[in-house]
């Protein structure tokens, strides 16, 4: 018996990076998945990686209706819906996120749309689906250590930090409200992980030197997407049936290390 046998899961932001790695782990553990991404090419590639264990759907997480289409597809294909993993988000640097004195209104709005509005929409849709089914269910949201453990020299994006911090409060609030319905809502908060979004940092030698002391586990390195798979499998499984409103930091030691410049 695997951890996710017969679970039917939707992953918003599941066609690359952390989401795709989780999707593959979920399938290995017995789940069937629907993954959502914005790029048709990455969707096609994701289906190949899933090797028959899931389907990819093109959609923008920040658009109303995307999560509903994904959950409807999950129900249609797999005759039900058990869990949502919301990974989608991104940096707003190109829109004007940064230090407060340089932050643009467009940067603020775009960053919140990508990282908080999209998450609200998917969580709302999942909650309604669980209510319609008369079942419990599980939601796992993606945040970041930057929501509570800033790094002002190398990672100064104040809108992003605010949005990721809001994920903590939002998750705890809905976890409290829906606990009596046996709906669990939890958060994973990683530090720097090697993903398409992290290429600025991953290719900067000064930042890599900093990471060796800020994320000192396993020799001091950037995280890899599969470093988060175990935590995601746990929260999507029945082994976490008595856990809700929790924040699990998977950060290589970031939040307990000084980091040296």
Automatic annotation (TrEMBL):
In terms of Gene3D superfamilies, this protein maps to: NAD(P)-binding Rossmann-like Domain
What keywords is this UniProt entry annotated with?
Answer: Oxidoreductase
Q: Which InterPro entries match?
A: NAD(P)-bd_dom_sf (IPR036291), SDR_DHRS6-like (IPR051122), SDR_fam (IPR002347)
SUPFAM superfamilies tied to this protein = NAD(P)-binding Rossmann-fold domains
Coiled coil ranges (UniProt) are none
Q: Which Pfam families does the record cross-reference, listed alphabetically? A: adh_short_C2
Q: Which family does it belong to?
A: Belongs to the short-chain dehydrogenases/reductases (SDR) family.
Q: What is this protein called?
A: Glucose 1-dehydrogenase
Gene source species: Nibrella viscosa
């Amino acid at each position: 018996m695997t951890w996710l046998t017969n679970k039917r899961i939707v992953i918003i932001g599941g066609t690359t990076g952390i989401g795709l790695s989780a999707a593959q782990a979920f399938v290995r553990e017995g789940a069937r998945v629907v993954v959502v991404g914005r790029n048709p090419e990455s969707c096609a590639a994701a289906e190949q990686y899933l090797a028959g264990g899931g389907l990819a759907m093109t959609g923008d997480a920040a658009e109303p209706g995307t999560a509903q289409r994904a959950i409807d597809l999950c129900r249609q294909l797999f005759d039900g819906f058990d869990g949502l993993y919301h990974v989608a988000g991104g940096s707003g640097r190109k829109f004007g996120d940064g230090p407060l004195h340089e932050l643009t209104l467009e940067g603020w709005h775009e960053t919140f749309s990508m990282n908080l509005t999209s998450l609200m929409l998917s969580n709302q849709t999942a909650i309604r689906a669980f209510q319609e089914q008369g079942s419990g269910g599980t939601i796992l949201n993606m945040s970041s250590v930057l929501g509570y453990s800033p790094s002002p020299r190398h990672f100064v994006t104040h809108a992003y930090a605010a949005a990721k911090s809001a994920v903590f409060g939002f998750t705890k609030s809905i976890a409290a409200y829906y606990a009596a319905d046996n709906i669990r809502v939890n958060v994973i908060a990683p530090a720097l992980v090697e993903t398409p979004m992290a290429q600025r940092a991953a290719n900067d030698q000064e930042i890599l030197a900093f990471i060796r002391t800020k994320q000192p586990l396993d020799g001091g390195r950037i995280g890899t997407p599969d470093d988060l798979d175990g935590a995601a499998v746990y929260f999507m499984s029945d082994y976490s049936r008595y856990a809700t409103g929790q924040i699990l930091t998977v950060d290589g030691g970031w939040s307990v290390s000084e980091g040296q410049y």
